[in-house]
Amino acid sequence: METALFSPYTIKNVTLKNRIVMSPMCMYSSHNEDGMLQDWHYTHYVSRAVGQVGLIMVEATAVTPQGRISPLDLGIWSDEHIPGFKKLVEMIKAQGAKSAIQMAHAGRKATVEGDIVAPSAIAFNERYKTPKELTINEIKETVEAFKDGARRAKEAGFDIIEIHGAHGYLINEFLSPLSNKREDEYGGNSENRYRFLQEVIEAVKEVWDGPLIVRISANDYTNDGLTPDDYVDYAKRMKDQGVDLIDVSSGGVAPAKIDVYPGYQVGFADKIRNDANIPTGAVGLITKAVQAEEILKNNRADLIFIARELLRDPYWPRTAAKELGVSIESPKQYDRGWL
Questions:
Q1: pTM, two decimal places
Q2: Spacing of C-alpha 190 from chain mean position
């Protein structure tokens, strides 16, 4: 039986053996606050590669120390980070999976010592620090930090880079009028609010010619915030810049009540895919193989990003294959227990 979920998918020059992606999920496990990988990370990521996930995406990895979500986040702000990631990439690839990294800057949602930064000096809520508004020079320095991170990711051997433009972190803060009140060339209208992401993409592509994904939050769920219609326009701009796929999440830029249910974000991936004519990844409480299969077969998305279900079941691809009544290759060491 042929299935969409277990069919290969080529993104630019990289072919995934199936449509299952390990969604980036922060582990908060860099114990020395230096952004370095620990033994935990190798076990965590490689076990999902053994479990036959097609693409393993490393969690939000900060391009500056100031841009960490927490002091325990991974970092890619230094060349000293390259050897650890190189080792991880080699271990992932040895299990037949492809590797990706999500490069990030937390902006006003950073919970680190010292000043935090954002497009405007507006705190996320009363529990967060008020950020310092970025100067033009600091914006340019941050763009360069993303470029340097991409160069390090390339040296580490990653197959794919994802730029984190979602969940209320720095890029998302520039995009949304709820968090960007600037009156210069980086704010005031849709084109100006997009400028920071535009410059990040341009800078990354100067040093990276592989597949490029951007994660977005397609709905602010708040009055006067961005909607999926706004993100169709942004997605068209990203496509024109050479972005290969949009990873479609939602929320996080402002406190909001979100009605969460299985597949609650799939409609956003569907709309952006078909209205902007760009491949998308669907994410958000996708837990069953039949659910994933429906999304793919009805052309609502091109890849399935699995998050919490892969925390519960590192071998979810095997579980999904059994649900769909198909056989998938097992690690040779597991042959006698795989069926």
A1: 0.97
A2: 22
